[in-house]
Amino acid sequence: MKSRRKSSNAPESSPSGPKPGTLYLCATPIGNLQDITLRALSTLRGVAWIAAEDTRRTLKLLNHFEIAAPLISVHEHNEEQRAAELVERLRRGEDGALVSDAGTPLLSDPGFLLVQRAIEEGIPIVPLPGPSALLAALIVSGLPPYPFYFGGFLPRKSAARARLLKGLADLDATLVFYEAPHRLADTLEEACAALGDRRAAVARELTKVHEEVKRGTLSQLAADYRERPPRGECVLVIEGTGDKSGAKQDRPADDEIIAHLEKALASGLTKKEAIAKVASLLGIGRNEVYRKSLELDASRQ
Ligand code: SAM
């Protein structure tokens, strides 16, 4: 990395113009300041500027670590304009860093546009991995860590939330969402209605004094948080449709098996493929699905 002095005042030149600076995408702690990485500290000390969503919040972090780089605000309302300005500075040879209020930039935080613009201009981009509520919640949830689907924040409107959740009902992947504490009980109830009473976990205030991870079924967690509304920051992790190990699952009804079979056959799968898919989807044996397929055949004759 070029030194801050060099990148802000004396960029290197070449016949085709100054050598561009580097954009560092720098993760910062989600609570516990000791989670900052050594590389993040040395990078933040060396860049010409630090772009941050909430500059006051980032200033506290910088003050704590005695980092003096100037702060530039980038948020959803000015990202378009800021991206152009910052890319221009990078093009002139300045190194800059993008940070979030907490965690990893771009994950439900600004920066995607800046990254796109920087790529278009051939600016080198370097990710500095570190804390993220998403991954911390996923690995502590006790649910299969992959494949997983990250949905960011769910829509605020209840109908849109329910629609989105229903659309994920058949996904064979652990589902991860950021959620505000005052919406958590509603969301858990809606998730239970849309997905069935699956296993889930709520990871709250990770890395902070009141860190808490609650595991249970969606209905148990909904009842819990309805009775004792949570505070702080939360991540909701829900098991995917394919994971039935140890879960509290009702046996699928006969007509549910047949409905899935009809759907799989209508999608163009062979009978053998449809049986395998439904067996895996419902967590039951292929023989059982095969027997239902015979009933289906008989009913069609
Ligand atoms: N980019 C950040 C990251 O990588 O973790 C997330 C930013 S997003 C705007 C903020 C949301 O992340 C919060 O509403 C909450 O859902 C989750 N979150 C952030 N910090 C958290 C923490 N310490 N514990 C649990 N969830 C957290």
Domains counted in the coordinates: how many? 3
Query: What Rg is obtained from the alpha carbons, in whole angstroms?
Result: 25 Å
Strand proportion: 15-25%
- Architecture of the largest domain, according to CATH? 3-Layer(aba) Sandwich
The major β-sheet equals: 5 strands, parallel
Structural class: alpha/beta
**Inertia-based shape:** elongated
Description of the molecule:
With 301 residues, this protein is an alpha/beta fold. The chain folds into 3 domains: 23-131, 3-Layer(aba) Sandwich (Cobalt-precorrin-4 Transmethylase, domain 1), CATH 3.40.1010; 134-238, Tetrapyrrole methylase, C-terminal domain (Methyltransferase, Cobalt-precorrin-4 Transmethylase, Domain 2, 2-Layer Sandwich); 254-300. 42% of the residues lie in helices and 17% in strands. The protein has 12 helices and 12 strands. The strands form 3 sheets. It has a 5-stranded parallel β-sheet with strand order 5-4-6-3-7, with helices on both faces. Strands 8-9-12-10-11 form a 5-stranded mixed β-sheet. Mean pLDDT is 90; it is low at 2-11 and 245-249. The chain binds S-adenosylmethionine (SAM). S-adenosylmethionine is lined by residues 30-31, 100, 102-104, 107-109, 132-134, 178-179, 203-208, 233-235.
Question: Layout of helices and strands, plus pairs?
Answer:
Blueprint: H1 4-9, E1 13-14, E2 17-18, E3 23-26, H2 38-46, E4 49-52, H3 55-64, E5 71-73, H4 79-91, E6 96-99, H5 112-120, E7 125-128, H6 133-140, E8 148-153, H7 158-167, E9 174-179, H8 184-195, E10 199-204, E11 212-217, H9 218-227, E12 234-238, H10 254-266, H11 271-282, H12 286-300
Parallel strand pairs: 3-6, 3-7, 4-5, 4-6, 8-9
Antiparallel strand pairs: 1-2, 9-12, 10-11, 10-12
Helix pairs in contact: 4-5, 7-8, 8-9, 10-11, 10-12, 11-12
The chain binds S-adenosylmethionine.
